[in-house]
Amino acid sequence: MNEIGSSPLDRTTLASDAAPGLTVAEALARALQALGVRQAYGVSGGAQALLWAALSRHLDLLHCRHESGAAFAATEAHFASGRPVVAFATTGPGITNALTGMLAARTEGAKVILLSAYGSAAQRGRGAIQETSGYTMPTSGLFEAGAWFDDAVVLETPDQLPQVLRRLAAGLARPGGYVAHLSVPTTVQGALLTQPMPPLPPEAPSPSVTGPAAIARCVALLSGAPFAIWAGFGARGAAAAVQALAERTGAPVMCSPRAKGVIPEDHPLFLGVTGMGGHAASVIARLRDLAPRRILVLGTRLGEPTSFWSPALVPPGGFVHVDIDPRVPGAAYPQAETYSVQAEVGEFLGALLAAWPEQDLAGQYSLRSGRPHPAHPAVQPSARLRPEALMGAVQRVVLDGSDATVLAESGNAFTWATHYLRLPGPGRYRVSTNLGSMGHVAAGVVGAALGAGRKAVAILGDGAMLMNSGEVSTAVKRQAPAVWIVLNDGRYNMCHQGMAALGMAGAADALFPPTDFAMLARAMGAEGLRVGDETALDAALAEAMAAPGPVVIDALIDADRPAPSHGRNEGLGAATAAARAAVTASVSFPVIASH
Q1: Euclidean distance between CA atoms 534 and 541, whole angstroms
Q2: Among 105, 156, 272, 390, which residue has the least CB neighbours within 10 Å?
């Protein structure tokens, strides 16, 4: 369970200090601090002035350049620190600008609280500046629990604050993600409390793992024949237990793109990454050779980016699927036999290992020689970088030479990084495959660097960088140890290559004017390096990693190198061929030929 950083001392302090005479804004800021929040990312505005000031007194407040960037940064700060994080916005466009980032937080399973301002009751419907109310914008879903938020409320009176804080405390204490929206009218922000704040409730215990009978059933299903493990992002906190189970049983492990590194990717039992940018051909071929009876699925939805719903990944005996969310098992593969277990992955694995029979199955599989990752090519003098050579330099300098976190942006950058990088262990790779919003890591790398207090490196395309490049300025203000590696090819290349693969090259324009990102970085006060020669890559990366503040590396890549988007071509097989033939059908990128 994620640490929420609230000790008995924190809670006692909150109860005694938050007495009548305190404003709602001040009490709320103190309560968030007591609940473990240490950072807030957002953009200011007059309607939230009192709340902004209170947050500044009690939290490390990062003033960003756009609300969507703030929400992306807050999301990655959560994953980097393990703590809940606040995003803040003013009324009207402040809220709507933040929504994409908040939806990313929800789909990624982060713990983020959006604090916003709301139109004061006496001014609603009268044309107030940036009015937020039912007169000016849809309120359904934005200010109530639903698809956008796990919980949401407009705080209309100070008397609501105690029960709202209890709801926030319970949500933050539960396993998995929690995204809430608390909107406070300006007049309420400055209102005085009318009653003392009670102590917040103690942390709720995580749900007990499924009982002994269910564990015994899992042992019976898995121990009777060879099985494989499919690890997802929900297993990231149980990496040691995943590896222990694999080594004790001999079960090979494959992982989703978001779970790269859940076991070291040079481990002899590692099969490869499934789905988008992964090693689909290798994984499917090895599964065919190994012929596991069942697959133990740990903390993944098995959605399109992870599986492409390929029937080749369904074993004859089906799945034993463990997830904290009971709606997940069976959703992606409704036709497959699935034994569902609702549990936190770490607790489940602890119980499973304790109940596992004393038998030595470590040699039940004989894996093929070689690893699923292709070799990194030797560098050569060049005018343009081969992306696979760039990934080799990232491997040597960043992953093997530091403890930095690597974040890969949606698009071709994601596929190059996922396919070529070899993660030495968990917790050092972040991608967004669920919402997959461009610009996520362009801003998120700032939150990752400040949340962890160490280097974070973003690998992203030039199109994505242009969407949130302003957050370089945020990093400069705080001298965040963030590095951007921009794959500069003057186009939305996943779209450009995808249209060509569909036989529609030239039918739609995905090109844009070239940008000198090194110059742009220097204009904002960051260090900027431009690299086109592969022989200069290692030195440029080493310089960036040694710099104390933000650095942008403008990597001039060969736009014609086909990205390793294997999932659509090898994982889907006949379905992909049919999609290519019927271009009028619903076809999504990437459908690019492997190389």
Answers
A1: 11
A2: 156
Distant-in-sequence, close-in-space partners of 274: CB < 8 Å, separation ≥ 6: 230, 254, 255, 256, 257, 280, 283, 306, 307, 313, 567, 571
Both structure tokens of 285 = 């071929």
Q: What are phi and psi of 117, to 5 degrees?
A: -95, 160
What pLDDT, on a 0 to 100 scale, did the predictor assign at position 282?
Answer: 87
Q: Which amino acid is it at 359?
A: Q
Is residue 306 within 8 A of residue 256, CB to CB? The reply is yes
**DSSP conformational letter for 376:** P
Give the tokens for residue 252.
């090979």
Which amino acid type is present at position 110? A
What is the side-by-side order of every strand in the sheet holding 319-323?
A: 270-273, 253-255, 227-231, 294-298, 319-323, 338-342
CB within 8 A of 235, min separation 6: which ones? Answer: 242, 259, 262, 298, 299, 300, 345
Structure tokens at 205: 């215990």
Tokens of 83: 């703590």
Tokens found for residue 511: 């090109």
Looking at residue 538, its pLDDT comes to 97
Q: Which residues contact 205 (CB under 8 A, 6 or more apart)?
A: none
Q: What is the DSSP letter of 536?
A: G
Mean pLDDT in runs of 10 for the chain (595 residues)?
Answer: 35 45 93 95 94 96 96 98 96 93 95 92 72 76 88 93 90 92 95 80 56 93 94 95 95 96 94 94 90 97 94 96 92 94 94 87 54 88 95 98 96 94 94 88 98 97 96 97 97 82 79 95 98 97 98 96 68 42 48 39
State how far the Cα of 91 lies from the Cα of 116, in Å rounded to an integer: 6
Q: Which stretches of 8-157 are assigned E, i.e. beta strand?
A: 39-42, 60-63, 85-89, 111-118, 151-154
Per-residue pLDDT reduced to its tens digit, 325-367? 888 999 999 999 999 999 999 999 999 999 999 865 555 555 5
Chain position carrying tokens 């060879």: 226
Which among 473, 504, 252, 249 has a CA at the least distance from the CA of 367?
252
Q: Within 10 Å of residue 22's Cβ, how many Cβ atoms? A: 18
Position of tokens 């019927």? 582
User: What pLDDT, on the 0 to 100 scale, is given for residue 578?
Assistant: 46
Q: Residue type at 120?
A: S
Residues with Cβ within 8 Å of 360's Cβ and at least 6 positions away in sequence, in order, are none
Tell me the whole-structure pTM to 2 decimals: 0.89
For residue 257, cis peptide bond before it (omega within 30 degrees of 0):
no
Q: DSSP label at 487?
A: E
Task: Please state, as a whole number, how many other Cβ atoms lie within 10 Å of the Cβ of residue 141.
Answer: 14
Decide if 362 contacts 386 (C-beta within 8 A): no
> In 3D, which of 466, 4, 416, 382 has the Cα closest to residue 202?
4
Instruction: State whether residue 397 is helix, strand or coil.
Output: helix
Give tens-digit pLDDT for 552-563: 999 999 999 999
SS3 285: helix
- Report all structural domains of the chain as residue ranges with CATH numbers, in order of start: 8-189 (3.40.50.970), 212-355 (3.40.50.1220), 387-581 (3.40.50.970)
How far apart CA 518 and CA 85 sit, in angstroms, is: 31
- CA–chain centroid gap for 271, Å, is 23
